[in-house]
Amino acid sequence: MKHGIILLGPPGSGKGTQAELIIKELNIPPISTGNILRHTLEQKTALAQELKGYIEKGKLVPDELIDRIVAERLVHKDCKSGFLLDGFPRDLVQAKFVNTIIEVTHVIDLKVPDKFIIQRLAIRKRADDKPEVIKNRLNVYHRLTEPLIKYYKRQGILHEVDGVGTVKDIHRRIMKELKVDLRSPKKEYGFRFLYPLRNC
Ligand code: AMP
């Protein structure tokens, strides 16, 4: 089974920024459902129209659809040695689906209080960063995504990381949880470093 790392955290917690740094360090592809969906929105299709209705209101896109998008992405060759899931899973239905297709080895939970989120998102210029949509996205996060923290804690794979601070500091904290030593030459690492005893 393929191995994956999950990056959890509320909207605006800096998941995208941290994902970029993690994938460079580990040499694995990012799978951001938000980015995939935004890309799909740019096309003038019936699917794009349907998706717009959810995304612009800050609601979750139906599980069946998102599960299919992710499953199709994971069969690509670049995912062979692992990947980083950013923004997926978002609820328990998706988390249970994930368990049927991959082995989740680490879940990084970026912890950022709501008051910081609201300040950060207020300066971003995305269509779904309007105040009323932000409120809805945060509600959705607390109601549907936050239960995943307990779910992964029970599985013993949750790593909680303080998401307040500089980008560099937060990156260091994440790498510490993944047990990647940033002082060593990067090339020797890559995803295999996380699984030295496995043939991934
Ligand atoms: P993000 O960029 O991850 O904040 O996602 C932006 C929006 O895309 C969300 O508010 C949802 O409408 C939708 N979305 C992204 N990922 C998912 C997912 N895993 N399940 C359902 N909807 C999602």
Which helices and strands occur, and which strands form pairs?
Elements: E1 2-8, H1 15-26, E2 30-32, H2 33-41, H3 46-55, H4 63-74, E3 83-86, H5 92-101, E4 102-111, H6 114-122, H7 131-145, H8 147-154, E5 158-162, H9 167-177
Parallel strand pairs: 1-3, 1-4, 2-3, 4-5
The chain binds adenosine monophosphate (AMP).
Short description:
By secondary structure, the protein is α/β, with parallel strands linked by helices. Helix content is 48%, strand content 14%.
Describe this structure in words.
About 50% of the residues lie in helices and about 15% in strands. The protein has helices at about 15-25, 35-40, 45-55, 65-75, 90-100, 115-120, 130-145, 145-155, 165-175; strands at about 1-10, 30, 85, 100-110, 160. The protein contains nine helices and five strands, in the order βαβαααβαβαααβα. The model is unreliable at about 195-200 (pLDDT under 50). The longest helix is centred in the last third of the chain and has 15 residues, at about 130-145. The chain has one domain (about 1-185): Rossmann fold (3-Layer(aba) Sandwich). By secondary structure, it is of the alpha/beta class. A five-stranded parallel sheet has the order 2-3-1-4-5. The radius of gyration is 17 Å and the shape is globular. The site of adenosine monophosphate has 17 residues, from α2 and α3.
